[in-house]
Amino acid sequence: MNNLGLYLHVPFCLRKCPYCSFYSLAGRTDLHDRYTQAISTQLRSFSEEYCDQSRPLISIFFGGGTPTLLPPETLSRLLAECLAQFSCADEAEISIEVNPATVDAAGLHVLRRAGFNRLSIGVQSLNDGELRQLGRPHSVADAVQTLQVARAAGFDNINLDLMYGLPEQKLYTWQDTIDHALDLQPEHLSIYELTIEDGTPFAQQQKQGRFSLPDEDTVLLMLEKTQQALKQAGFDRYEISNYAQPGYQCRHNINYWENGEYIGLGAGAVAFLNGTRYTAIADADQFCKRLECLSNGQDVWAEKEKLDRDAAFRETVIMGLRMTVGLSLLELTDRFDMKSEMYYGETLHRLIRQGMLQIVHDRLQLTAQGLLLANTVMAELV
Ligand code: SF4
């Protein structure tokens, strides 16, 4: 597993979506310059202290938050600094997340010229009522326009993020969203079921009975219709929640699912190198302060965890099973000097007998039934 990716986190958002439990900050424009300066410092110290600069990056991903709340020139400068500090494979995938109406045509041209070659647009729904219910600060027209402008700027690898199982959502409104999304001809779709996370305004509203979610059968039907429509349109479901046209699978995320190594920059970002997981402090003010005082010997990590062989083995299995091709048992044995049959024993055999897992040409993978009940299967293997 020699792949190396780089993730750069921009935690700023226009406003906080009521379902969001990610680390993100609304309205902190005062911090933008200081934060980008801190990232530049972290980038330099990272390449000196933690990894071999000559090892080429296979992917770079600027995510958030809403990265495009920073000026396109600032994002381009940060990308140039990444490329100056690390070598980068030819044809590396360089993605940036964009929320509709946060970047205009000129800005997208700047990003494309800087080297970003993949765009991930946070569309979530193509129904204005649902977008309002989700508290999204954009409309369907904004999302469509962002995609059209991105095409004109030269982006030929575009992902749309969508969510189903939304409050008051009907099967037909979800089908309309899927049909409309396919009409827009993206190369990639990330499609997640909404989960209501504790501590979010949505959790509170749900407790107060202010909305109801579609029932389990409707949600299953939504997933079924999604799979049918996407298959018909030539998309391959290559991960539980991700679908791509041939050749457009997201390499950056595949590296995560293969439990490969990655650099993580920014507040709350995670890095995984030499068997150690580093999690940066999820507080942008503190993050900046610590990088401004690096000479005091403080670092930005809230947590450093050295994974032992068993933990790394389990993680590799769980992550690998997220991909529909699963994982190679031979490679697993080579990497950890441990066999999955010996490690999981009867549990593995039972899951195979129950039709949740299968072994196809050396690859352990979830069956169609296992994909539907993936969380339950993973819980048995974790
Ligand atoms: S835009 Fe994304 S990261 Fe920001 S608050 Fe909304 S869901 Fe969270």
From TrEMBL:
GO cellular component: cytoplasm
Limits of the Radical SAM core domain: 1-236
Pfam families for the chain: HemN_C, Radical_SAM
CDD domains reported in the protein's UniProt record: Radical_SAM
Database matches in SMART domains: Elp3
InterPro entries: Aldolase_TIM, Coproporphyrinogen-III_oxidase, Elp3/MiaA/NifB-like_rSAM, HemN_C, HemW-like, rSAM, rSAM_sf
One of the GO biological process terms: porphyrin-containing compound biosynthetic process
SUPFAM superfamilies per the UniProt record, alphabetical: Radical SAM enzymes
Cofactor (UniProt): [4Fe-4S] cluster
Subcellular location: Cytoplasm
Primary localization: cytoplasm
Annotated keywords: 4Fe-4S, Chaperone, Cytoplasm, Heme, Iron, Iron-sulfur, Metal-binding, Oxidoreductase, S-adenosyl-L-methionine
Gene Ontology terms for molecular function: 4 iron, 4 sulfur cluster binding; coproporphyrinogen oxidase activity; metal ion binding
Family under the similarity heading: Belongs to the anaerobic coproporphyrinogen-III oxidase family. HemW subfamily.
Function: Probably acts as a heme chaperone, transferring heme to an unknown acceptor. Binds one molecule of heme per monomer, possibly covalently. Binds 1 [4Fe-4S] cluster. The cluster is coordinated with 3 cysteines and an exchangeable S-adenosyl-L-methionine.
Annotated protein name in UniProt: Heme chaperone HemW
Species of the source: Candidatus Electrothrix aarhusensis
Lineage, broadest ranks: Bacteria, Pseudomonadati, Thermodesulfobacteriota, Desulfobulbia, Desulfobulbales
